[in-house]
Amino acid sequence: MQEYIKTMKRRANELKKAIDAAEKKKEGFPEGRLRISRSGRQIRYYHVVPSGNSSGTYITRDKREIVKVLAQKNYTGQFIAAAKKELSRLEYCIRLLLDIDADQVYQGMTLSRKQLIEPYILPDELYAARWLEKEYKSNPYNPEGKIYETRNGEMVRSKSEAILADMLYELQIPYHYEQSLKLRNNIIRYPDFTLLKEKTRELIYLEHFGLLNDEQYRTDCLKKLGEYRNNGIYPGKNLLITLESKDCPLDISGTRKMLKEIFQ
Fold this sequence. Notes:
By secondary structure, the chain is α+β, with helices and mostly antiparallel strands. The protein has two domains: about 1-100; about 135-264, Trna Endonuclease, Chain: A, domain 1 (3-Layer(aba) Sandwich), CATH 3.40.1350. It contains eight helices and eleven strands. It is elongated. The chain starts with a helix and ends with a helix.
């Protein structure tokens, strides 16, 4: 519920700023309104003022700059009216939701009671805990190659993957290591990390490409990215990529910053 309220508050703030900007713009508009006449493909513009002809004065080509000004004036008036109405309703809804939040019935209980209850709407932290507890099929390839232990007590294949796993653990980002992912045509892939974004309950995949000096490895990476793209998994949307080569090590601080901005 709190996420919905935050979203509504962001929209309300956006509306307030836009209304202020529109109100300031409104002060500089000329008198009157724009009338547009269409005849076939020909469009004519007229400037209608209260004290003049109801049909308005034809705007010649050399004075066409006023057409956009008058059009903007009309839009501004309609926008202000609609934005104020939306803002009023948003603020009313926010007040209601702050007073009544069904999630708080469970959240306000003691731990001993929570342990006895199955909530009808899972809180984010409980949803994440259950997701973490789920058994999943991991990559069966070369299990003996998993020689680096993480702070979470699992074994991974490289030092960089261990660093990434420890970073996720430290930032309290729920993850599964090398969880199977079924793509189209029954293709099975094992992303290095499958991450859960608690607030939205989205799955985001993290791939570490750590042998970019190797030509065949680069080709395989590009093929994998193509498969992901064909299955609706895109960088910047639900796929994160970290890179490493012999001369360019993993950017630890940059990766940490990226994860914080996306997940916290």
